[in-house]
Write a structure and sequence with these properties.
Shape: elongated
CATH superfamily of the largest domain: Vaccinia Virus protein VP39
Number of domains: 2
Distance between the termini: 55 Å
Order of helices and strands: HHHHHHHHEHEHEEEHEHEE
CATH topology of the largest domain: Rossmann fold
């Protein structure tokens, strides 16, 4: 019920925001409005609409696919994004006085999309029905797809990213000395806490709610394995990139990360995950290799995944194992 009321409130806020003022007719007028209200989302959306024709093709496609307008879905998360982007928008407003609006807006767009997709993905998976329906299939997926890839990894100190209600955790706990569960949904964390408690059959559990692309609660160099299955497939590539850099930080030398992620970006590279088959994001296997290189991680294993693994489209996803190089 609370999630339904939240959606209603957000829809009303979206309608109110879209009709509060008439859109500006020029860039100068839009910039003047931003200077008066730099921390507000709508004036920035108006300016983005006026300059997007000058964006690079890929960025313009992102603006269109994510509907970054004063009537778009982003307004459902207006208050949240304004709070999280407050400092960035204030700084961007000052930059408009001296820098090209196209350049400044391009950076604002990237941050808007990152935060919008985090909030949108979180809310889309707030209810428990999906996790209940997916639970009966995990043993077959584990035996046929997951275990052959991860069987030689070190399960001493495990972090599971986006565990949902714990269907993967149930299998991981039988191998792990400890598991740290991190999810952007507080209700998922509470469901896992209720299911597993603090200890179960020799495995210790810790629980954290993340802001959507950070593992700040985890000590550097403390983990032997980061695991994520059937969750990261929805994460925008900008969010995956942030997590890969965090994974590089929290892994011990020689530690590994098993990541199940989208490859649908090869078909729709600048798309909104919410409109793609299987709600897959714009991520690709190639991008994962690039992010790993940036973060100083080796790609120990990677293969594409599709119809044979039950995903409905050929090469829809990818499985990647990253490894932090061992100390010399």
């Amino acid at each position: 019920m609370r999630s339904l009321l939240a959606r209603i409130r957000r829809k009303l806020a979206r309608i109110a925001a879209s009709s509060a003022t008439r859109p500006p007719s020029s860039r100068n007028q839009a910039i003047e409005r931003i200077q008066r209200r730099p921390g507000q989302l709508v004036p920035w959306l108006d300016l983005i609409g006026l300059v997007r024709a000058d964006f690079p093709d890929s960025l313009r496609e992102q603006v269109l696919s994510h509907d970054l307008t004063r009537s778009g879905v982003i307004l459902c998360f207006q208050e949240e994004l304004q709070n999280r982007m407050s400092d960035d928008l204030q700084q961007a407003s000052r930059r408009l006085e001296q820098e090209d609006a196209v350049l400044v807006c391009g950076e604002v767009v990237a941050e808007m999309i990152r935060l919008k997709t985090i909030a949108q993905c979180r809310d889309a998976h707030a209810e428990g029905n999906y996790y209940r329906d997916a639970e009966p299939y995990i043993q077959k997926q584990w035996d046929g797809v997951i275990w052959p890839i991860i069987k030689d990894l070190d399960f001493t100190e495990v972090l599971e990213l986006a565990p949902g209600h714990g269907r993967n955790t149930e299998l991981l706990r039988r191998l792990a000395g400890s598991i740290t569960l991190v999810d952007v949904n507080p209700n998922c964390i509470e469901a896992c806490r209720e299911r597993f408690g603090e200890h179960r059959d020799g495995c210790r559990f810790r629980y954290f709610v993340t802001d959507g692309d950070s593992l700040a609660m985890v000590e550097s160099g403390s983990l032997t394995l980061v695991y994520s299955f059937d969750s990261m497939v929805h994460f925008d590539s900008s969010v995956v990139r942030a997590y890969v850099h965090e994974i590089a930080r929290v892994l011990r030398p020689g530690g590994s990360a098993f990541l199940h992620h989208s490859n649908y970006g090869t078909v729709a590279p600048n798309s909104d995950w919410a409109h793609n088959p299987g709600n897959r994001s714009d991520m690709t296997a190639d991008r994962m290799r690039g992010f790993a290189a940036e973060a100083g991680l080796d790609v120990a294993f990677q293969r594409l995944s599709g119809i044979a693994d039950g995903w409905g489209l050929e090469d829809l996803d990818a499985f990647t194992v990253l490894r932090r190089p061992a100390l010399a």
